[in-house]
Amino acid sequence: MFSKTFTALMAAANLIVMAHVSAMAAEEVHFSSEPVKLSALRERLAEQRGEAIPSQVGTPLVGYLSRPEGAGPFPAIVVLHGCGGLGPRLKNDVAGRLVSQGYVVLAVDSFASREMKSTCQNTRSENLFTITDRVYDAYGALNYLSKYPFVAADRVALIGFSAGGVTALEATKVYGIEQLMTRKFKAAVAYYPTCSPNDGDATVPTLIMIGELDDWGPPALCRQRLANLSGSGPEIRLNVYLGAAHDFDVPTAKTGTVYFGHKLEYDAAATAQSNREVSAFLRNEMGN
What's the predicted TM-score (pTM) here? Predict the structure, then answer.
């Protein structure tokens, strides 16, 4: 009993230290989302018609950059928040854990410069801001990271949580926006996303993690997507955690929490297992 209690206390202390170190190390940075690009077909049609191709500019964004000590180059990770915005858990705790494993981390705030706080209610005004916008945010972050000499630009993964997880899947699906981008992600991780069953293959190895009891992003939708894969693309791995709900890795999601009609609940076992599986997945795919 003493051993278990001591181990739990040490784990909690390590998390506190990691969060503090990460918070001290994180640097606020400013960059832009990737400008919306016309497809090759639309560009060709515009040229044939003698039409000028309008120049596009990206949306100014705020991010928080954390990095290991040393010159690198290090593999990197772009982190995308959920519909409630970027909080200290992702910016500090999650980033701190990943930095401790040797990754540069850029946590993207898609809301601050847009003067938004949440998109969880799906109101009409919120719907003007779409997952597509966030995909361009992700690629803007990728291009921004690629400019640093301490980043291995060909080894950058995308990790998203909830709505950010939806974005990670959208950004790396075959025949999606990814095909318009010069720089590509190396791998993708989606925590408790709402899967689109008809999205088909991914362009990169992908890990999806979801709770068995998630009523916001039901596992059945992810299983349907996997059933529709061609079998010739990169692996999409689906891990379903028994008894776990949405936000299973969020310590503040206490038992009984209901958010916009959905059950949220922290699950220590699912969190520990998912952390191990993400670490192994990234080591395998990123060569770190």
Answer: 0.85
